[in-house]
Amino acid sequence: MAVVNKIGKVMKRNHALVSFDQGRIVRAIRRAADSIGGFEQDYLEGINDRIFAAGKTDEGIAEFLSDLVVICLNAKPEHLVANFPPTVEEIQDVVLHVLQSTGFTVTADAYTCYRWGRHWVREGAITQEQFVGGGYPKEHMEKLLAWNRAHGCDTIEGLNEIIREGRLKPLVEAAIAEYEASLDEAARKLIRRLDAGDELQMIWISGPSSSGKTTSTVKLAERLERWGLRFLMLNLDDYFWPLIEHPTDWINDRNYETPEAMDIQLLNRHLKELLEGRPVEKPVYSFKEGRRIGTKPVKRAPDQIMILDCLHGFYPPLTEGIDPKVMFRLYVEAMNPLYEREFMLPLLEGDRTGRRLTRFADVRLLRRMVRDARHRNHTPLATLLHWHYVRAGELFSIIPLKGLADHIINGGMPFDLPVLKPFFSGPESLWPKREDLEQYASFLDARIRYERIRKLLDSVEGLTFEQVNDLALIPGDALVREFIGGSTIEIPHNE
Question: Once rounded to an integer, what is the mean pLDDT over residues 116-125?
Fold first, then answer.
């Protein structure tokens, strides 16, 4: 469509002024869409179908969305003054706003991850070789799909057939063996660095919410203890700012998912002092009272390695001034690609037929819903409404930095969905009622996730609670038990 464009200049990051080029916006949006397999991955009837009808092709949709960006930029009067043009960062903010506001949430996620990845390259936090683009490199995805295909569970239909035919146990055993082997490799890498003379003093375990960091931390520590290593574990939750310093939004929710929710300067100072062998007065935080209620003396023995389980463990300000040679970084993600049923988009030229992959973040959201309901006294609806904070945090300072990892562990299992399904079925279902979500009609992100996950759950053949509780089928030390309960591993955050 034709729109009036009154934006003549753009201010670059070095404050130089250059001519505004709408084509750059088109190309950036198109690149994000291509990275996820095309705009059809975001097609939502009743939400953005009219944009598909207007655009007709991927290029046409990208151009349509770029027109909306221009309209939003024109709406700010200061941008119409030659001396106050929009900055590159402001334009990127508007692109993200347009994508999220029109239901292109998957494209928006890829755009955000790419944007912040480029930021960390410019900052020198990661190298170009460590840059992960939209977060899910094609070669990594293909490897995971190949494993699932070899085990007959690369599709929802294939997984359902395994459940119906009672063939789940061998799949559980194979998936857990793959995960345990990856932990073994992580331990070997760490030991090899020690044998090579590296004076490792810190192990960081990072990764997105509900990816299985806690279970992986415990299992890795057990392996390393068998090698005679000694550890000091720090609960970094104690470094949260007091509740009064976390402003609420209009539904009284707080953003604990940003790294700045922690007192980074104090944590950084304490880490340096502990590395130097000096004692620190570590804060003690009460979540019940929402504030620090005291301090606890902590000192690291010369032969102890600190283990730090932290969402934002790779965030550069946390370890500023600390030699990377003393750190081992482990990244835990939860990626298990499954193809959903075929779909067709008659609104796009060519009547394209394709398949969508399940969204990894959706499975993690289900894990967190169960955990929050069982151990945190948070309703599933509250978890759903809060999830946009989770995604914003991990797309800024978690996923774009995973190239820093010395080793990556995949905590996503092909049997996650069947195991989680019974918690969201029947009269005791944790899944929020549609009428409860209606009062939050303006929360488009929550509405989209709600409908997408509901359809996903409807398509999955679930286990019974009797099967879920059967330790012979789902072992007590399986990662998923960190969320569903019954773990034979002590999960500190659930106690």
Answer: 97
